[in-house]
Design a protein that fits this description.
- The radius of gyration is 48 Å and the shape is elongated.
- A hairpin with a 4-residue loop joins strand 18 (325-337) and strand 19.
- With 362 residues, it is an alpha+beta fold.
- It has five helices and 20 strands.
- The strands form four sheets. Strands 2, 3, 11, 12, 13, 14, 15, 16, 17, 18 and 19 form an eleven-stranded antiparallel sheet that branches. A four-stranded antiparallel sheet has the order 4-10-9-6, with no helix packed on it. A three-stranded antiparallel sheet has the order 5-7-8, with no helix packed on it.
- Helix 2 (104-134) runs antiparallel to helix 3 (138-163).
- It has helices at residues 2-26, 104-134, 138-163, 215-224, 280-283, and strands at 41-47, 51-60, 62-63, 69-76, 80-83, 91-92, 97-102, 166-168, 173-186, 192-203, 208-213, 231-236, 241-254, 263-272, 288-304, 309-310, 316-322, 325-337, 342-347, 354-361.
- Helix content is 27%, strand content 43%.
- 11% of the residues are buried.
Length: 362
């Protein structure tokens, strides 16, 4: 009976264990194995193309707006003067008569010589017509022709004297002011008299402008071989162009202790090449610019500086997309262009290569 109790006890334990295991198995959680997507690197590229490079430097012109001109002529109180230009704002051309001093004696002499010339011309014409009809009087006609030539000469000389009494504008411009002043003079007999001076003040509409060439642009400027009289093109803030002519060219140097050579400068003074219908006085109120060409290259490959890396050994390289893979490409570089933002590539890149500019993981 004692053995049977032990057996029952063991069976009971087995049943209890089975119940516990059954309850535990019903609470077991099922886990799924996660699947991860492998990220792929995507590239942004720049296709290599050959191009023409016209590298330039934009230079602002300094305009000399203080320019002007004063032209005067004088006459005494014993003379008279007739002014043809007295109003402000009158536009005059070079050679226009601004005023004439009156000289009665010269006027009378010129009138006599004109009358004499006209008389001699009538006499010659009469003899010429008679000679054609009669065939006579040839010698007399030749003497009359000499008289005409002498009278013409006398008239021309008198007219030249009259021209000296005319005051003419020596430039194109706009009259800003006409003033008359005088001063007391004394002749050889101690008689006092007045000398009047008429002064015309011009507002110049063809201002001088300076193009300042710094040391960085000096070599390129020197290669142009420009000289006074050459024509350049400038433009305003609206990109409207105007022609200017070189007036003077000045050069200077300055020593710098930290450099092995002097700093060089050039100042090119230019003025407008006048065109009809252009208000140059208004133009100078706005900024004007000149483009100095630094480099002109044809069919070259260039690369932006920010896409080039330099190794500690002094080698230059960039990355290209080759067979859909990021590949290093070593470069041989030339001069800096496009206002020093890019390099000319001498070797290492070919047309249609794809330079990697950026990348992202997707």
């Amino acid at each position: 009976m004692k053995v049977n109790k032990v057996s029952l006890y063991i069976i009971f334990l087995i049943i209890i264990s089975a119940v516990i295991l059954t309850s535990c198995s019903s609470q077991t959680a099922t886990y799924e194995i996660p699947v991860f997507d492998i990220m792929e690197e995507k590239f942004t590229t720049l296709e290599v193309k050959t191009q023409d490079v016209n590298d330039w430097e934009k230079i602002k012109l300094s305009i000399q707006t203080t320019g002007g001109a004063r032209y005067s002529f004088s006459y005494s109180e014993y003379e008279q003067c007739t002014l043809f230009v007295t109003e402000k704002g009158t536009v005059v051309k070079k050679g226009d008569v601004l005023g004439v001093i009156t000289d009665r004696d010269l006027e009378y002499d010129l009138r006599l010589k004109q009358e004499d010339l006209e008389l001699k011309q009538l006499l010659y014409t009469d003899l010429y017509n008679r000679y054609l009809k009669t065939g006579e009087g040839y010698y007399e006609m030749q003497l009359a022709l000499l008289d005409v030539e002498q009278s013409q000469y006398n008239y021309n000389k008198a007219a030249e004297k009259m021209e000296t009494l005319k005051f003419k504008s020596s430039i194109d411009g706009t009259i800003e002011n006409v003033s008359q002043t005088y001063k007391q003079m004394t002749d050889e007999f101690n008689n006092k008299y007045k000398v009047y001076t008429i002064t015309f003040t011009y507002a110049i509409d063809n201002y001088m402008m300076d193009i300042s060439i710094g040391d960085a642009e000096y070599d390129s400027f020197e290669k142009l071989g420009l000289k006074p009289g050459d024509v350049l093109q400038v433009y305003d803030s609206n990109n409207k162009t105007y022609k200017v002519m070189i007036y003077t060219m000045r050069y200077s140097t300055a020593e710098r202790t930290y450099l092995s050579r002097p700093i060089r400068y050039a100042t090119v003074t230019v003025r407008f090449v006048k065109e009809e219908g252009v208000d140059y006085t208004n133009i100078i109120k706005y900024a004007l610019y000149y483009d100095l060409t630094l480099t002109q290259l044809e069919d070259v490959i260039v690369i932006p500086k920010n896409l080039v890396t330099k190794t500690s050994a002094g080698l230059y390289y960039t990355y290209v997309l080759y067979n859909n893979k990021k590949t290093i490409r070593y470069l041989t570089l030339g001069t800096e262009v496009l206002n020093s933002t890019s390099y000319v590539v001498l070797s290492g890149l070919h047309e249609n290569d794809l330079i990697i500019t950026d990348s992202t993981m997707e």
